[in-house]
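Case study 2.
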Amino acid sequence: MVFELCRCLREYTDRDLKEKHSALTEADCQFLMSLPCLFAYESVCEKEARIGRLLKVQQKDGKVRVSYEVNKDLLPLSQERISQLAWDLGIGDWEMNRTHWALKKEDLHAALRQSSSPLSIRPVADITTQVFDVSLSFPGEVRPYVESVAKELVSLLGPGRVFYDNYFKAQLARPNLDALLQDIYRKRSKLIVAFLCNAYSEKEWCGIELRAIRDLIKSKQDTMVMYVRTDRGEVPGVLSTDGFLDANDHTPIEIANFIAERLQIMPGRE
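Prediction:
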């Protein structure tokens, strides 16, 4: 997809966003690639829109080329549905009649969730076989924060790609759950994100998940592990030299975007 530079982040985009990101520096492009995108046709085409993300942004000779992928787990959006949600999506009058690339302050997936129509077309993932993009490990004390991160990750990655326990309550109500969790965290997660704190080291189930994390590190697969700290409590096996993100310095949306950024460079897991 190729645009004239004058139509990129300059039309139907708030002035502060335009001034901040329209130069399309490398940092701008990295930020933009972390956001969910609405790919829509002009109204006259009468074609459905799709949700997806940018993969690459290139600029040359006054033009911008973007590579992208659509999220096949999410249903297409009709022109009528987009029109109904125009206010929530920040879409202005006549905006759908001109080809351009705009940046909005509105939360795309939050706006879509307000609609009565389902977003997902994929059935519930079978956690005994599913390979997850991200699995979250945390104690109950930080659940509200982690749940916000999980919701944003689903918005970015799609349903069935994030292992968060409350999304699979029915499937987790079974004997030998410890063995299943070990299998998910050790063998069927591209990235494990552990939310570390003083309470983490006190929880039995976190201990089970931590064993999988430590085994990954032992086998030199530490790139599959990402730490987020909610406090500076000690956790066995986690050293002062280990890097982490501080949840006190970042919102759940920011943490989710960091996780999505990390996934972009992750090798595939067999």
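The mean pLDDT is 90.
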